[in-house]
Amino acid sequence: MEHIRHLGIVGLGLLGSSILRAVKSNYPHIHLHLFDGSRQVCHEVEALGLAPRCAGSLAELHECDLVVVCVPTGAVATVVIALAEGMKRGAVLTDVGSAKQMVINEVGDRLPAHVSFVPGHPMAGGEQSGPGAGREDLFAGKSCLLIPLATTPTSAIERVEGFWRALGAVTCRVDARQHDHIAALTSHLPHLIAFSLMETFGDQLAINPQTGSFIGRSFFEQIRLASSDVTVWTSIFEDNTAALLSQTEHFIEVLNQWCAILQERPVELHGKISHSSVLANRLLGRVV
């Protein structure tokens, strides 16, 4: 946490409150400045004992060395632009949004020269939301993708890298297009599949209400993501549509291959399942 004496957090849901918990526990010398547009969320943060008070406006964060913007993706650019004008010289802004090209395009060259913006995305989260869902160890061992702009000073990038590493994350620099396609495959598509599976279940439930009485564990494991925050995921799907469509179209092609094997070449099922199983076991061996 070198060069960070005052840290701002905008948005105190799952990710913002997890950052708050981690910094409070491990870096008590850092002064925290917190803001959330929802007074209900602020009251919850205070009731949980996470902070004595929240800031009344973004202006109270202007003296921070680093501000982490933890709002839905569609609101990131608006908050970054609003914050930047009043920030002190050398301040750095970053975010946790799940789509990047859209945010970078919206921010454009609208920031003052004395402030840097380093887009970021910690690959951590969960289907629960709100300050009560936060965890001190949420980022430990997780990847955090950083998308520095061509004009971003090295010192600003290193400040954000150091911040995430101090919370236990493993940082990696990528460009916006890489990020959006990676996130579409490893995060957004699984949510889309879960929502679709839940919709399929709802259709069947309407036909046969008894369906709900016979649910296996594997079904619950698949649809857990469907209970995720509606506002957050609406914003993500809207803001990363092109990459998500590309990954979804490829997924449909793979599903069609499975359908063809089921209908015409069942002898290939064992090999097809075996191939997927090997890939899954390799991946699970690398994931904590």
Automatic annotation (TrEMBL):
Record's keyword annotation contains ATP-binding: no
Domain Prephenate/arogenate dehydrogenase: 5-288
UniProt-listed GO biological process terms: tyrosine biosynthetic process
GO MF annotations, alphabetized: NAD+ binding; prephenate dehydrogenase (NAD+) activity; prephenate dehydrogenase (NADP+) activity
SUPFAM superfamilies according to UniProt: 6-phosphogluconate dehydrogenase C-terminal domain-like, NAD(P)-binding Rossmann-fold domains
Top-rank taxon, per record: Bacteria
Keywords: Oxidoreductase
InterPro entries: 6-PGluconate_DH-like_C_sf, NAD(P)-bd_dom_sf, PDH_C, PDH_N, Preph/Arog_dehydrog, Prephen_DH
Family annotation (PANTHER family): PREPHENATE DEHYDROGENASE, PREPHENATE DEHYDROGENASE [NADP(+)]
Name listed for the protein in its UniProt record: Prephenate dehydrogenase/arogenate dehydrogenase family protein
